[in-house]
C-alpha cells in the first residue's frame, strides 16, 4: 500500500492540523494569539493559553530539504513577538531574534519569514524576545520537519512533543507564579503537568510488526525530561535534527529544553495490548501509549540504515579556543558582573535588574560579541559551569560537536544545537563558523536566559 508520509502524519490521530499543500513560494500565515486548550484532564476544563493558530503545538510545518519555506507571522498577542526556527542553519536575517536579527513584531503587525533549510530532520519554532520565557510557558511553539530527500523505510512517522506546564488545580495556567524571581535564580519555571502533542495523554494506534519513526521534541521552559519507550527493538537515529550512526536504544532518552531525538522502533507488542511511554525522572509517569492491533509480527527486520547525511562541514583540525565561564544562580550568587556596560554588585543586579547569572563576567547581552570568527574557521568553546545547576547551552545558526567533557566521554558523533551540562562540569564544543551573521549562544532554560545567561558571537 502506498501512502505518502505526509498522509500518514496527517492521519495518525495526533493533535495536528492536516498539512495544507502549498505551491512553492506561497506563504503560509501563522497567527500568534490566545486560545483555549484542555491540558490537565481529558474532558476537563480548558485553559486559556497563547499559541499559534489556536492550538499548542501550533501547526506542523513541513518542507522538503533544500526547498524554501515561506511563513507569514501575524501577531494577535498583546506583546511583541517573533519566530525563531530552532536548530535550522538559517540565513541570519530569518533567525527571529528580536533586537538582533529583526525588530520585534508589534501587536497587530506581521513579519515574513522565508528560508531554505539546508538540513533534513526534526526542528521546532518559537518566539525569541525578552519575554520568550512567558510566551513559551503559555504555549507558543510548533514543530518543523524538514523531510529527507530519501526518507527512511518506516511505516509511520509520529510526533512526540513534550511540554511541562505549571497549572493550577483547576487545570488553568498558573499565572500567579509567572515570572517569579525564585524560578529565575533556581531551576527555571518547572511545571507540574506534562502534555504530549498538547494533550493530557497521547495514544498512538499502531499495528504489530510496523516500523515507526518517533520524533521526540521537548518544548519545556526548564525541566529536563527522561523518557522510557516500550519495546526492545529501537534505534537512536538523530539528535537535534542531525543524523548519528544508528545506535540501539538502551535505557532512557534525555531531552533537555529544546533538544530533539529521532528514534526508529519496531512495534513488537502483542496485538490488543496497550503499552505506556513513561517519563521517568522521578516516579515513572505514563504520558502516552501504543495501542497495538493487527496480527502478531513474525519476522524481525534488520536494523535500519542510517539517515542520509546533512551537508555539514567537518571540523577543522586545529580549532581556535575560547572559554565561556558560567556563573551565578542560587547557592553561588554572583558577587558582581557587568550589565549593559556597568559593573554592578550581585545585589544590584538581582534587585534592580532581575539578573542572577553571567557568562564571562557579563550578565545579559553585551554590546560586543564574546567571539568574532572569520568565515569558515573552526572554534572550540570550553564551557565551564561553575554554578550549582544544570544548563542546556543552545547555539544559533550552527551545530556543534562535543570534543571534551569532564563528566564522561564526549558525545562526539552527534552534531547538536543544544548541549546539556551538569553542575560543576566542563564541556568543550567545536563548530565550524560557516554561517555569517550575529548569532546567540544561551541557556535554553528560558528563565536563566532572561536572567543573564545569554551572549552572542559574530561570524564573517
Ligand atoms: Cu530555541 Cu535561542 O532558542
Ligand atoms: Cu540554565
How would you briefly describe this protein structure?
This protein is mainly beta. It is built from 5 helices and 32 strands.
Set out the fold topology.
Layout: H1 5-11, E1 28-38, E2 46-52, E3 61-64, E4 69-75, E5 84-86, E6 110-115, E7 121-126, H2 132-137, E8 142-147, E9 156-165, H3 181-185, E10 193-196, E11 202-207, E12 211-218, E13 225-228, E14 234-239, E15 242-248, E16 253-255, E17 260-266, E18 274-279, E19 285-293, E20 320-328, E21 336-339, E22 342-345, H4 346-353, E23 357-359, E24 362-363, E25 371-373, E26 377-385, E27 391-395, E28 401-405, E29 418-421, E30 426-433, E31 437-443, H5 446-450, E32 454-459
This protein binds CU-O-CU linkage (C2O) and copper (II) ion.
Structure description:
This protein has 460 residues and is mainly beta. Helices cover 7% and strands 41% of the residues. The strands form seven sheets. Strands 10-9-12-17-14-15 form a six-stranded mixed β-sheet. A five-stranded mixed β-sheet has the order 11-19-18-13-16, with no helix packed on it. The chain starts with a helix and ends with a strand. Bound molecules: CU-O-CU linkage (C2O) and copper (II) ion (CU). Copper (II) ion binds next to loops.
Keywords:
six-stranded mixed sheet; globular; binds CU-O-CU linkage; five-stranded mixed sheet; 460 residues; disordered N terminus; single chain; binds copper (II) ion; mainly beta
Amino acid at each position: 500500500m502506498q501512502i505518502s508520509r505526509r498522509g500518514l502524519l496527517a492521519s495518525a490521530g495526533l493533535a495536528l492540523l492536516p498539512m495544507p499543500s502549498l505551491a512553492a513560494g506561497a506563504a503560509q500565515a501563522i497567527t500568534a494569539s490566545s486560545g483555549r486548550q484542555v491540558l490537565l484532564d481529558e474532558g476537563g476544563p480548558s485553559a486559556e493559553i497563547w499559541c499559534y493558530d489556536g492550538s499548542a503545538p501550533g501547526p506542523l510545518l513541513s518542507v522538503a530539504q533544500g526547498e524554501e519555506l515561506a511563513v507569514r507571522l501575524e501577531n494577535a498577542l498583546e506583546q511583541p513577538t517573533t519566530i525563531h526556527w530552532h536548530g535550522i542553519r538559517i540565513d541570519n536575517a530569518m533567525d527571529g531574534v528580536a533586537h538582533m536579527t529583526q525588530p520585534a513584531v508589534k501587536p497587530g503587525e506581521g513579519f515574513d519569514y522565508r528560508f531554505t533549510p539546508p538540513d533534513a530532520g526534526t526542528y521546532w519554532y518559537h518566539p525569541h524576545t525578552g519575554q520568550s520565557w512567558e510566551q513559551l510557558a503559555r504555549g507558543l511553539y510548533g514543530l518543523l520537519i524538514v523531510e529527507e530527500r530519501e526518507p527512511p523505510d518506516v511505516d509511520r512517522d509520529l510526533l512526540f512533543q513534550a511540554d511541562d506546564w505549571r497549572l493550577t488545580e483547576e487545570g488553568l495556567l498558573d499565572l500567579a507564579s509567572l515570572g517569579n524571581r525564585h524560578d529565575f535564580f533556581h531551576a527555571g519555571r518547572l511545571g507540574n503537568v506534562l502534555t504530549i502533542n498538547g494533550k493530557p495523554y497521547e495514544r498512538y494506534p499502531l499495528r504489530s510488526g510496523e516500523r515507526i519513526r518517533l520524533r521526540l521534541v521537548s518544548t519545556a521552559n526548564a525541566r529536563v525530561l527522561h523518557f522510557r519507550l516500550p519495546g526492545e527493538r529501537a534505534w537512536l537515529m538523530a539528535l537535534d535534527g542531525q543524523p548519528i550512526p544508528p545506535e540501539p536504544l538502551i535505557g532512557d532518552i534525555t531531552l533537555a529544553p529544546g533538544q530533539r531525538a529521532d528514534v526508529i522502533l519496531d512495534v513488537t507488542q502483542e496485538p490488543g495490548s496497550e503499552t505506556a511511554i513513561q517519563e521517568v525522572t522521578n516516579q515513572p509517569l505514563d504520558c502516552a501509549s501504543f495501542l497495538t492491533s493487527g496480527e502478531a509480527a513474525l519476522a524481525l527486520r534488520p536494523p535500519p540504515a542510517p539517515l542520509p547525511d546533512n551537508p555539514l562541514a567537518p571540523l577543522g583540525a586545529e580549532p581556535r579556543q575560547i572559554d565561556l565561564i558560567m556563573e551565578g544562580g542560587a547557592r553561588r550568587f554572583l558577587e558582581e558582573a557587568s550589565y549593559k556596560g556597568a559593573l554592578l554588585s550581585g545585589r544590584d543586579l538581582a534587585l534592580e535588574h532581575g539578573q542572577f547569572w553571567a557568562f564571562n563576567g557579563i550578565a545579559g547581552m553585551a554590546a560586543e560579541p564574546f567571539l568574532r570568527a572569520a568565515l569558515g574557521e573552526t572554534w572550540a568553546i570550553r564551557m565551564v559551569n561553575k554554578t550549582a545547576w544544570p544548563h542546556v547551552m543552545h547555539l544559533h545558526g550552527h551545530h556543534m560537536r562535543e570534543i571534551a567533557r569532564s563528566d564522561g566521554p564526549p558525545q562526539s558523533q552527534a552534531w547538536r544545537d543544544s548541549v546539556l551540562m551538569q553542575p560543576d562540569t566542563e564541556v568543550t564544543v567545536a563548530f565550524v563558523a560557516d554561517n555569517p551573521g550575529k548569532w546567540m549562544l544561551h541557556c535554553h532554560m528560558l528563565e536563566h536566559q532572561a536572567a543573564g545567561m545569554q551572549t552572542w558571537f559574530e561570524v564573517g
